[in-house]
Design goal:
9 strands
Length: about 220
């Protein structure tokens, strides 16, 4: 766990990143993995629901949302992932829009009688219509500053070779290093540090970001 905490030094970050780290014997999963789903379909298209589950479990820290979710064992996390799937449900194209993520969170909030508000920022496929780095960075920081992890939809990774296309991951911090903004992300049990500007400038299909306010 210490390794992940070191890379978060000097970052704008969620308050308790360790809450999302699952120790299993000698191994640590940094965040959750869509491969934990049992069915083939959910394994293939479950990155969006997995990202949503990550945020909701985090917001439920110390039972703040009164959700029936625990983070102490994989079996409990999988139960939460399957429950969230019922609301944040991929279409035949996957969860390929931030609006679908928001709709799912809205349904989830209504079902559990919560007052959650999902904020989204779309990044267009056209370079001419994309927001400047500062606007995207500020959006991410707003989520982190209210202690919400930020879901990141990447439809095309551009020059970020370590990132999968058509994929959701979760941002737990953002920091300035060498005059660049780097987002610290949890992706299928691993920690990634990604150049945000490089993604904005080189992605061919865009994507978007989402965080959840607990009102």
């Amino acid at each position: 766990m210490e390794k992940a905490l070191i890379i978060l030094d000097d970052a704008v970050k969620i308050k308790e990143p360790k809450y999302l780290f699952l120790r299993e014997g000698e191994n640590i999963s940094y965040g959750y993995n869509q491969e934990w789903y049992e069915s083939r379909i959910r394994k293939m298209s479950g990155c969006g629901p997995t990202a949503a589950t990550t945020i909701l479990i985090y917001l439920n820290n110390d039972n703040k949302l009164k959700l029936p979710y625990k983070n102490n064992e994989r079996v409990e996390i999988i139960k939460a992932m399957n429950d969230v799937w019922n609301f944040v449900t991929p279409s035949f194209m996957g969860l390929h829009k931030t609006s679908l993520f928001k709709t799912g969170i809205d349904r989830f909030s209504k079902h559990y009688n919560l007052n959650l508000k999902c904020k989204i920022l779309d990044i267009k496929s056209s370079k001419l219509k994309r927001q400047p780095l500062e606007e995207v960075s500020d959006f991410i920081k707003k989520g982190l500053n209210i202690d919400s992890p930020v879901a990141f939809l990447n439809l095309h990774a551009g020059e970020l070779k370590v990132l999968e296309h058509w994929h959701w991951i979760v941002i737990i911090g953002i920091k300035r290093k060498n005059n660049k903004d780097y987002i610290i992300c949890l992706d299928q049990g691993n920690v990634l540090e990604l150049d945000l500007k490089l993604w904005i400038e080189t992605t061919k299909k865009g994507g978007g970001f989402a965080y959840i306010e607990n009102n």
